[in-house]
Specification:
The complex is a heterodimer of chains A (about 260) and B (about 450). With about 260 residues, chain A is mainly α. In chain A, about 75% of the residues lie in helices and about 0% in strands. In chain A, α2 runs antiparallel to α3, α3 runs antiparallel to α4 and α5 packs antiparallel against α6. Chain A is flat and about 55 Å long. The two termini of chain A are about 25 Å apart. With about 450 residues, chain B is of the alpha/beta class. Chain B has three domains: about 160 residues, Glutamyl-tRNA reductase, N-terminal domain (Beta Polymerase, domain 2); about 130 residues, 3-Layer(aba) Sandwich (Rossmann fold), CATH 3.40.50; about 120 residues. Chain B is about 55% helix and about 10% strand. Chain B has 16 helices and ten strands. In chain B, the strands form two sheets. Chain B has a six-stranded parallel sheet with strand order 7-6-5-8-9-10. Chain B has a four-stranded antiparallel sheet with strand order 2-3-1-4. The longest helix of chain B is centred in the last third of the chain and has 63 residues. The chains are: A mainly alpha (about 260), B alpha/beta (about 450). The interface between A and B is medium-sized, with 27 and 30 residues.
Chain lengths: ~260, ~450
């Protein structure tokens, strides 16, 4: 067993514990457990970082050449986003959405590729690496947007149905959800825009046949368009609320599918 | 340590008894003076609220029973209540039980409305009054500080205080689910109903920036606006104001809805999706039902608010279980600590006595030790001193171990007997009014242990 794999397993183990602590503290209302979530996620994050470093050192290039490595990098960046947003807002509870999603993605990447592939080298090239890293960071920022939108919908539904009690006081206020979603989108959207442009340039220059309008590409484009509409409506018309949250979730789902399907 | 408590509350006495036994706040300090002027009570505290009157005392060397009796007589004499009848309504507690009870009361676990905030302020006030009257010291002062600390811990670690306890307060709780920060928000109060006013007051206490008041009778609106330091608004300008405010509270006596869907839909659109809370306290209702279907509008009528409070009550009860556990553990810890207070005078006495023996013996051997150099003499001094400490180490540890058990007074008596210290000589007990004295004794012996 190599060290990289061991580190990844350790990371997954800590992510599982972090997720469990978030769920137990919210469902059983053991508030004392909640501070453990970012701590455990942080340890997992460190192990994950070491894993990525091992892979990179062994291959000599950034490991983004197959679905497994790409999703692993995305998950690592998503946990980074969680930890950063926790350190700024002290909202441990964000982990209850972000961390399970991270686990699901790591699980999927494991199913899609059974064996540890050597790092694929046929994707070398500065522009492509740049394109991929920027896309990963952009989607990772949108993990936070996604979590905030889910919280918003839960809160909004509780309020409209006149049952704001139970979760209402554990989750951030409606306004906070909205601010978080706006803030994270302001990071995610420009990054995605840059990545789509660099992706298109790379496609035009290095590929023998243009694949720009393939279904996978159009997923990304669709998501980008939806996000563009939300961002501009937010800024020009002050648009927000339930429908914006639904659309945001849709765009995020499209992006994730695109990420999962990159090398399939 | 005898800490004694005598009290009555909504659990034990009806209102017409409780109201006869309350102490007005301005007469509290004098009453405390009279309470502690009795020989049996070294320290005393009076907690008097509309739901309870409780006397807390520290009896020093007298027994708990005497302390309780003294407090009982004091209460009867002070409030002119028949002594015999008093016993029917009062509960008495001592030591561990009393500490536990005080912690529960302060944490609002014994309140009529579980988790209400008021009691914490009342205990704080009782503590302050006792400090001013200099009626508490080495035992009750730390006890009260601990009780307040435990109550704060309960409020932060459990959700007991997070759920609204009353319909008027439910508006605050709602607003906080929607808005991150209430300061800087604007509200409008429509109609001069008492209930609406109360809800508005709760919100103002949370730092709402400005309030508009609208009423059919404009002079009344002006009058009410003045008490809130707000701005009066003509009744037909309500819809304009609705564009600006974050919370609207309505409690008019109008038989017809005053805010219908058709009326509010436009001003709310103009808000560009900023959320608004509409609290409808009026019966019959002031706001049309359909208004709730507009995006970003949260309309709550009286029944909705009652539902929020009822759900909150269930939540508070669930949280109370965590709270009880915290209180139980803290009470136990305090009790153990308080018992060590009983030991310090005994330990000090023993040390003093044995040291005298040591010095006397050295004196007796003086001539035989005359040939020693100053260095050697110093060594002999040190040797005897350290011998004493070594010999005392285990007995003192055993005595301190007794703090966990139930037979502390017996052990103390036994300990005194072994070392030949009589109670009469125990006049060195630290002055209980001076918290520093007790602590001094304690640190003395922990240095050597």
């Amino acid at each position: 067993m190599n060290i990289a794999l061991l580190l990844l397993r350790a990371a997954v183990g800590f992510y599982v514990l972090a997720t469990a602590s978030a769920f137990v503290s919210v469902v059983l209302k053991l508030r004392k457990l909640l501070p453990w979530t970012p701590l455990l996620a942080g340890i997992g994050f460190a192990a994950h970082l070491a894993h990525l470093a091992c892979r990179t050192a062994a291959a000599g290039v950034l490991p983004v050449g197959d679905t497994r490595d790409l999703l692993s990098l995305l998950c690592w960046a998503a946990v980074l986003v969680y930890l950063v947003s926790w350190s700024r807002t002290r909202l441990e509870v964000l982990g209850i959405v972000i961390l399970p999603l991270v686990l699901v993605l790591l699980f999927i990447s494991n199913i899609l590729t059974r064996e540890v592939f050597p790092v694929s080298r046929d994707l070398e090239g500065g522009l492509l690496n740049f394109h991929i890293v920027v896309a990963v960071l952009g989607v990772a920022a949108l993990f936070l947007t996604f979590a905030a939108s889910v919280f918003y919908l839960v809160q909004e539904r509780g309020l409209k149905e006149k049952r704001p009690g139970r979760l209402g006081l554990v989750l951030p206020s409606l306004e906070k959800c909205d601010t978080l979603s706006k803030f994270s989108m302001m990071w995610g959207f420009p990054l995605l825009t840059v990545s789509i442009i660099t992706g298109a340039i790379w496609n035009a220059n290095f590929r023998s046949h243009a694949r720009f309008w393939e279904s996978k590409e159009s997923f990304a484009l669709l998501a980008w368009l939806i996000l563009g509409v939300i961002v501009s409506a937010r800024y020009l018309r002050g648009w927000r609320g339930r429908k914006a949250a639904y659309l945001t979730i849709l765009a995020f789902a499209a992006l994730l599918l695109r990420m999962i399907g990159v090398y399939l | 340590m005898p800490i004694v408590l005598l009290g009555l509350s909504h659990h034990s006495a009806p209102l017409d008894v409780r109201e006869k036994l309350t102490f007005p706040a301005d007469a509290l300090e004098e009453a405390l003076g009279r309470l502690t002027s009795r020989d049996t009570l070294r320290e005393g505290l009076i907690l008097s609220t509309c739901n309870r009157t409780e006397l807390l005392g520290h009896t020093g060397s007298s027994g708990a029973r005497d302390g309780e009796d003294a407090m009982r007589e004091f209460l009867a004499a002070e409030r002119g209540f028949p002594l015999g009848e008093l016993d029917r309504y009062c509960y008495r507690m001592a030591d561990r039980e009393a500490v536990h009870h005080l912690f529960r009361v302060t944490a609002s676990l014994d309140s009529m409305v579980l988790g209400e905030v008021q009691i914490l302020k009342q205990v704080k006030a009782a503590h302050q009054a006792a400090l001013r009257a200099r009626s508490i010291g080495a035992v009750l002062d730390p006890l009260l500080r601990k009780a307040l600390g435990v109550a704060k811990r309960v409020r932060t670690e459990t959700g007991i205080a997070r759920h609204p306890t009353s319909i008027s307060y439910a508006a605050v709780s709602l607003a906080r689910t929607i808005f991150e920060d209430l300061s800087g928000r604007k509200i409008i109060l429509i109609g001069a109903g008492k209930m609406g006013e109360l809800a508005a007051r709760h919100l103002l206490e949370r730092g709402i920036a400005s309030i508009y008041v609208a009423n059919r009778s404009f002079p009344r609106a002006v009058e009410l606006a003045r008490t809130f330091d707000g701005e009066a608004v003509h009744f037909d300008r309500i819809l304009e104001v609705l564009e600006k405010v974050d919370i609207a509270i309505s409690s008019t006596a109008s038989p017809q809805p005053i805010l219908r869907y058709e009326d509010v839909v436009r001003p709310i659109r103009a808000r560009q999706n900023r959320p608004i809370v509409l609290i409808d306290r009026a019966v019959p209702r002031d706001v049309g039902r359909r208004v709730n279907t507009i995006d970003n509008v949260y309309l709550y009528d009286l029944d909705d608010l009652a539902g929020v409070v009822a759900a909150g009550r269930a939540e508070r009860e669930a949280e109370a279980r965590h709270a009880e556990e915290i209180v139980r553990r803290e009470a136990e810890a305090f009790h153990t600590w308080a018992r060590t207070l009983d030991l310090s005078p005994v330990i000090a006495d023993v040390r003093r006595r044995l040291d005298r023996v040591r010095v006397d013996e050295l004196e007796r051997y003086r001539s035989r030790l005359a040939g020693l150099t100053p260095d050697q003499r110093k060594a002999v001094e040190e040797l005897t001193g350290s011998l004493l400490n070594k010999l005392l180490h285990h007995p003192i540890r055993a005595l301190k171990g007794a703090v966990q058990g139930s037979d502390v007074p017996d052990r103390i008596r036994f300990f005194r007997e072994i070392f030949g210290i009589h109670d009469a000589a125990g006049g060195s007990e630290p002055d209980i009014r001076d918290p520093a004295a007790g602590r001094q004794e304690e640190s003395d012996d922990s240095d050597n242990a």
